[in-house]
Amino acid sequence: MYIGVDGGGTSTQVFAFQTDSNKGAIVSAGATRQTSVGWDVARGVLVRTAEQALGRIGSTREDVVGLSACLSGIDLPEQSQKMVAELSVSFPNASIEVTNDAMAPLTAGTNGRAGVVLVGGTGTVAVGESSDGEVARAGGYGYLIGDEGSGFDIGRRGLMAAIRSYEARGPATALWEVVQDKFQLSSPNRLIPVIYESENPIAAVAAFAADVVAMASVDVVANGIVDRAVRAHVDLVNAVYRQLPDVDRRVVLSGGLFRSAGQLTERLEAQMVDTEFVILKHQAVTGAVIRAMRVTAQDEEGVWRSVPWQQIESSAASL
C-alpha cells in the first residue's frame, strides 16, 4: 500500500494505491503549505485525507509501506526532516519522503525517470532530477521575492497596466476593458475591495493571468507582459540545465498557465529550439505514488524503474 501526496497552497490531493489489487482512491482536501497554514494543520490535513483514501479501499495507516508527500513550502532539509518525523508517528510501517511539490509533476511527466519540469501556476519553479537522484532547482521563491513569469506575476502586471492606462499614466491597452468586464467595475478604485477583501488575494490576482495571455495576440501591452513571462521561463529552465547538463532536453510543463494557454508553449519552443516541451498528461499526484514506491527501494538499483505505471495511470483515470 502506497500513499502519494500533491500538496499546494490552495488544495491537496492524496492518492492511495494498492499494488496487489491495483485498487486506488484519490481524495482532495485544502491547503497543506506549512508556511501558510502551520505545521499542525498541514499534518492534520494530510493524515485525515490519507485515512479517507485508505478507507475507500479497505486499508489503514498501518498497511502503508511507502509514502511520498510532495508539498509546497518544503524547500529546506530541516523542513523535510520535521515533516517526516511527524508523519512517521501516523504511518509507523512506512518509508517516508517529504519533498517539494514540484517533484510530483516531474515524476508523473517522466514516468519516474530523469528529466526537468517547469511548473507555471500561481507561482513558478523549475526542477530537474538526474538518473542518480541529483536534484537541481531554479525559482520558486514566492510572490514577494520571486515567481517571475507566474500566474500572479502576469496577473499583477496586467492589472497594473490596465489601471495605468485608465489613469493616462501608462500606454493605452484594452486590458482595462477586460478588467471591467471580468470584475463588473466602473472605475479602478472598485478593484481594491475585489482584490484585497477576497478570501485569497494572491489567487484573485493570478486568476487574471489567463485574460492577459488571451489578449497577447491583439494587444501590444499584454503581448509585452507575456513575452517577459516567457523569458523568465526560459531563464528558469536554462538555470536547471546548467546544473544538470547531462539530462535530456525534454521539459515537462505543469500547472494552469500551460494547460490553458497553448501560446506560452509555442513561444517557449520558438526561444528554445533545441528543447522538447510536453504538457503533463497525468495527474501530478500519480508521480507522488511512483516516488512512494521509489523510497521503499532506494537502496535497490533499478527497482523503482519497474513500478507499475500503467496500473497507476489506469487506476487514477478511473477515479
UniProtKB/TrEMBL annotation:
Name of protein: BadF/BadG/BcrA/BcrD ATPase family protein
InterPro entries: ATPase_BadF (IPR002731), ATPase_NBD (IPR043129), Euk-type_GlcNAc_Kinase (IPR052519)
Range of residues in the leader sequence: none
Source superkingdom: Bacteria
SUPFAM superfamilies (alphabetical): Actin-like ATPase domain (SSF53067)
Start and end residues of each ATPase BadF/BadG/BcrA/BcrD type domain: 3-290
